[in-house]
Write a structure and sequence with these properties.
single chain, 622 residues, alpha/beta, 8-stranded mixed barrel, globular, binds ligand C2E, binds calcium ion
Length: 622
């Protein structure tokens, strides 16, 4: 067994720990909700905040813990505090540090451990937030690690408030022994201030926000929480620099402060994340209207130096008592709503619904199953034909992923893609799609359709790992495909989220002759401006417009304008979701190049596709 390392900072660490008033190892009640949520969120029987003393450890809060050996030598958390981020032990029996640890071999029967160090403001690790199971877990994902870190931040905030309280108690005259080492009332005031105010904007900080939400809910009083996240703020920082980025955040803070009333609270709770607590608000409709007005206020141009900056933001709303009475849960609900708002698009407002909790749980469950799906090869590609509008011939197909689930049958991407793309397997599956679709296209080009073009949807994750441009070129070469046989489909979200990386990769591929299609065109808001700077070859007009061309004059004129503009930019066009003859005729008249939709064929398996279009094996039979 490996004993935890004691770092040179140990004396400073123990001194820092003593400032939190755990001398008689008392529990800290404000940490109870954190461990409860940790246990529930990850489905683990045990969660604890463990403080590390000089030779033994003790719980500041815990749930599900029986009798445990509390010596520092055997403690997992004592190892975790020497790590910068999450210490993950999927199976302790397979870990050389722990396989013969008494907590593993004895009655405690510890198998899985994940712990995050809890830091003092000076960066000294006081203890760790951990979750523990007597079962191994090999599927604890990076996303799970992030969530655990978020909870650890909450725990750290609560510890920090505790430290301030202890400092205040100790400085009161009757128990004061050595006045010099305790803060003066003025210093104490300053300490309190620092612990509750965001230094950059002067708004309340995260700790103050949580505390205030708790106070209101304990009363209990109705309240609406709004989580507001600036869209693509990283790009703003990257292009304008941090000084201007900070100025923008300060301006937004001022605007938010002006919008909240007395008894309400505006806070900055993360780099580009703000939160509002609005008391007395019970109606989701009214909250939504207000949130929309707030987003409009945020979207007003900001003048910093000589720049005119346009910002958009997304907002998630949760209401108490309608959604929950528990403060941490309410914050979590508003966060889930924000997550959803961001997924729907930019500049959106979304009100929490209980189904979001189910979705989050489903994401976790699917997360587990997805590993199996990858291992066992349960994904398949379907192909949907693309048709030339000038002569009705087939030009190629879009590859669309399906999950052949052993119990639930063929699943559409809407069911599992959010879990897949939010998890660690996105790039692996992306590579598989690329290879599989290219192999299929190469086969069809050799057997009856020599000019066949394959469309492949990319996900953001594929740009984050390795070198996508090289991977694509190597895949084409491996299957003997020319670059024009491939068209990569990207959406506005992919482009806006990782601007510089994506742009570089697409430029290289476009220069080599690979087609780049802008997917779902017309649904976003930055689409027009993007056309100028992006190396595109085609735009795919979103189905929502096609749906309206026959009934809505407005949609019809938008479609005409898009087609016009595409011609000006020298781009090919394809209309998605064509279901009716009349839509087809209209698009032909407007000189749209190609179309795709149920009218010509739904997405189908490769053998079905061959039968329907007389290529491949079907052609050999014919
Ligand atoms: P998308 O790229 O916009 O794909 C078109 C979607 O519209 C497909 O849904 C297709 O089945 C559907 N569709 C096609 N024609 C019609 C029509 O005439 N009427 C109607 N109502 N719908 C039509 P699907 O296959 O469920 O895919 C949904 C989305 O999932 C795709 O939207 C794409 O964003 C994503 N996706 C699918 N396959 C992949 C993949 O292999 N990789 C990645 N990264 N994303 C994928
Ligand atoms: Ca697509
Ligand atoms: Ca599309």
């Amino acid at each position: 067994m490996k004993c935890p390392v004691i770092l040179p900072s140990e004396p400073a660490r123990l001194k820092a720990l003593s400032a939190y008033g755990f001398d008689d190892e008392q529990l800290l009640q404000s940490l109870d909700p954190v461990v409860r949520i940790a246990s529930r969120m990850f489905g683990m029987p045990v969660a604890a905040v463990n403080m590390i003393g000089s030779d033994h450890v003790f719980f500041a809060a815990s749930t599900g813990v029986g009798h445990v050996d509390m010596r520092r030598d055997v403690s997992f958390c004592a190892h975790a505090i020497n790590q910068a981020d999450v210490m993950l032990v999927p199976d302790a029996t397979l870990d050389e540090r722990f396989h013969d640890n008494p907590l593993v071999t004895g009655d405690t029967n510890l198998r899985f451990y994940a712990g995050v160090p809890l830091m003092s403001p000076e960066g000294l690790a006081l203890g760790a937030l951990c979750i523990i199971d007597d079962q191994p877990h090999h599927d604890f994902s990076p996303e799970d690690c992030k969530r655990l870190q978020e909870l650890a931040k909450m725990a750290s905030d609560r510890l920090e408030l505790r430290r301030i309280e202890v400092a205040a108690e100790r400085s009161t005259p009757q128990i004061q022994e050595d006045a010099s080492s305790f803060p003066t009332p003025h210093e104490e005031q300053e300490l309190r201030q620092q612990a509750s105010v965001d230094g950059l904007t002067g708004l309340a900080n995260r700790a103050k926000f949580y505390r205030q939400v708790e106070d209101v809910l304990i009363r209990p009083a109705p309240v609406a929480l709004m989580m507001i996240d600036i869209d693509g703020f990283k790009d703003v920082n990257d292009t304008l620099g941090h000084t201007l980025g900070d100025a923008i955040l300060r301006e937004l803070a001022t605007r938010l402060q002006q919008l909240v009333g007395e008894g309400d609270l505006a806070a900055r709770i993360g780099g580009d994340e703000f939160a509002l607590m609005l008391t007395g608000m019970t109606d989701a409709g009214a909250a939504t209207q207000l949130a929309e007005a707030i987003l409009v206020a945020i979207a007003r141009p900001i003048k910093v130096d000589s720049h005119q900056v346009h910002i958009s933001a997304s907002c998630g709303i949760a209401l108490a008592p309608a959604h929950t009475q528990e403060a941490l849960e309410l914050v979590g609900d508003a966060d889930l709503a924000l997550f959803k708002a961001k997924r729907v698009g930019r500049g959106r407002v979304y009100v929490f619904t209980p189904s979001l909790r189910m979705e989050a749980m489903a994401r976790r469950l699917y997360g587990l199953e997805l590993h199996r799906a990858v291992d066992k090869g349960e994904f398949v590609l379907f192909y949907q034909p693309q048709i030339s509008l000038s002569d009705g011939s087939i030009t190629g197909a879009e590859a669309l992923i399906r999950w052949h689930h052993p119990e639930r049958g063929i699943l559409a991407p809407a069911v599992f893609l959010p879990a897949l793309e939010g998890g660690p397997l996105a790039a692996t599956v992306g590579s598989w799609i690329l290879n599989e679709a290219c192999a299929q296209a190469a086969y069809w080009r050799r057997s009856g359709a020599p000019r066949f073009r394959i469309g492949i949807n990319l996900s953001g994750a594929q740009f984050q790992v390795g070198d996508l441009a090289t991977e694509v070129m190597e895949t084409l070469a491996r299957h003997g495909l020319p670059p024009e046989a491939l068209e990569l489909e990207v959406t506005e979200n992919i482009v806006l989220d990782n601007d510089d990386i994506v742009l570089g990769v697409l430029r290289r591929l476009h220069a080599q002759g690979v087609g780049i299609a802008f997917d779902d065109f017309g649904t976003g808001y930055a689409s027009l401006s993007l056309l100028k700077s992006y190396p595109l070859s085609r735009i795919k007009m979103d189905q929502s417009f096609v749906r309206g061309i026959l009934t809505s004059k407005r949609d019809a004129s938008v479609v005409r304008a898009i087609l016009d503009m595409a011609r000006n930019f020298d781009l090919e066009t394809i209309a998605e979701g064509v279901e009716y003859e009349a839509e087809y005729n209209y698009l032909r008249r407007e000189h749209c190049d190609e179309a795709q939709g149920f009218l010509f064929g739904k997405p189908m398996s490769a053998p079905q596709f061959e039968l329907m279009f007389g290529i491949g094996r079907a052609k050999a039979i014919a």
